[in-house]
Amino acid sequence: MAFEAPLQALVPVCRPASPMNQDIESKTDRIGGLRPRVKVFDFFSGCGGASQGFQDAGMDIVFGLDFAADARQSFMRNFPSAEFVFEDIRKVDENDVQSLVERQRPSPILFCGCAPCQPFTKQNTFRPAHDEDDRVPLLTEFLRFIERCKPDIVFVENVPGIQNVAANSEPFGGFLRGLKEAGFCDPPACASVSLRRYGVPQRRRRLLLLASRHGEIDLPPKSHGPGTASPAYTTVRDCIGDLPEIKASETDLVVPNHQAAGLSPLNLQRIRATPEGGGNRDWPEHLRLPCHRKSEGYSDVYGRMFWDKPASGLTTRCISYSNGRFGHPSQNRAISVREAVCLQTFPMEFRFSGSLNSMARQIGNAVPVRVTSAVGRHVAKHLAEANPGRR
Predict the structure, then answer these.
(1) I need a surface site. Which of 159, 212, 213, 373 has the fewest CB within 10 A?
(2) How far is CA 141 from CA 90, 131, 144, in A?
(3) What are the residues whose beta carbons fall under 8 Å from the beta carbon of 157, sequence distance 6 or more?
(4) Which domain covers residue 179, as residue numbers?
């Protein structure tokens, strides 16, 4: 297996380190008595949402793996110093990854594995058997690398439904048993949590799992919501309220990726008839679809967001007006690529590659950045407490 050469000069990388800072960081990694920076290996990396959060928490992104071409381009564009494997994980030899892990020691190693989750989403009412969907065994493939490489920390983010599918066998039950046999804390920290608690402006629950080889660990405490220093949840307005206005089909010439999909004349009439926070039930009868007349469901389809509430969970079709509550709160269009990026809490400097639909797919599949930023800070504290001899 060959690691890909990084793409060095596509765009400026966000927050580039100065030569002086790079020298300080390298010395910090080498000199005894100073705490080494955590090295992150991002399996199923996608565009790099999880990696961005870990980088924001002060960790180094050294490895990415994915088999989606546009996601690969986006990842390498934003993490040009990381080594990348563009391959199906089932075809990757764990010994090759182990060689890279050994080169990063004695720094702590974090393995992140946020495998594709569509087989277990609420939107998918059919739950495939282990041998009926190629995506189901990917968690087991991730375990193969954990068992061989023995990282210090393992982080998994997925849809809550994954732990309910064959809970005592593959994939999730077998993954938990494998972690225990590999020397990780038993049980690992694992729960379905609302991502609003970490400042993500979406009504979205995800399964978070955190395991350590340095003793028990829990999930990060909430930073937003009642009882915290930020009692109000982050809203749509907080994240996209300052972006310039554009129309459907337009692209802003200044803000990167601030591009909106087009609307048909009929859908333009529909969104004009939709108030903030409203949906297809607010339309006059002549604009309604026959399936909407027959059912009380589909309340989020063709919906607008509220300005001062969190959005609904973003999907891989998050820039499509007809596929969810993805209408802009006040402008007559669906949210733009950049607005979706902001709602996933990426920094403004983060750049995406690919077509409009490809970028939406990358964004919808991404781990919201603030989630792994909170996890990263929590892990750093855990490692410091577990290894008090290092400053």
Answers:
(1) 213
(2) 6, 14, 5
(3) 50, 114, 206, 207, 208, 209, 367, 371, 372
(4) 36-228+368-386
User: Is 126 inside a domain boundary?
Assistant: yes
**d(Cα 345, Cα 49) in Å, to the nearest integer?**
9
Q: Is residue 154 part of a domain?
A: yes
- How far is the C-alpha of 258 from the C-alpha of 104, rounded, in Å? 38
Q: What is the pTM of this model?
A: 0.87
Q: How many domains does the chain have?
A: 1
DSSP 197: G
- With tokens 């337009």, the residue in question is 250
Catalytic residue among 117, 149, 239, 318: 117
% of the chain exceeding 70 in pLDDT:
81
Gap between the Cα atoms of 295 and 293, Å rounded: 6
Which pLDDT tens digit goes with each residue over 44-92?
A: 999 999 999 999 999 999 999 999 999 999 999 999 999 999 999 999 9
Q: What are phi and psi of 349, to 5 degrees?
A: -75, -15
Summarised one tens digit per residue, pLDDT across range 169-187 is: 567 889 999 999 999 999 9
Which residues pair with residue 206 across a beta bridge? 193
Would you say residue 78 lies in a domain? yes
Q: Do 313 and 289 touch, CB atoms closer than 8 A? A: no
Burial class (CB in 10 A: 0-12, 13-18, 19+), 130: middle
Helix axis angle for 356-365 and 69-78, nearest 10°, is 70
The bridge status of strand 189-194 relative to strand 60-66 is unpaired
* Mean pLDDT value of segment 135-143: 82
Query: In this structure, what CATH number is given to the domain that contains residue 66?
Result: 3.40.50.150
In the block, which residue shows the tokens 């206005």? 245
Active site (annotated) includes residue 117? yes
pLDDT tens sequence across 85-133: 999 999 999 999 999 999 999 999 999 999 876 543 444 443 444 444 4
d(CA 119, CA 105) in angstroms, rounded, equals 36
Query: Tokens representing 187?
Result: 């049980």
Distance of CA 33 to the CA centre of its chain: 34
In a domain, 174, yes or no: yes
pLDDT-derived band at 160, boundaries 50, 70, 90: confident
Q: Is 382 left (phi over 0), alpha (psi -120 to 50) or beta?
A: alpha
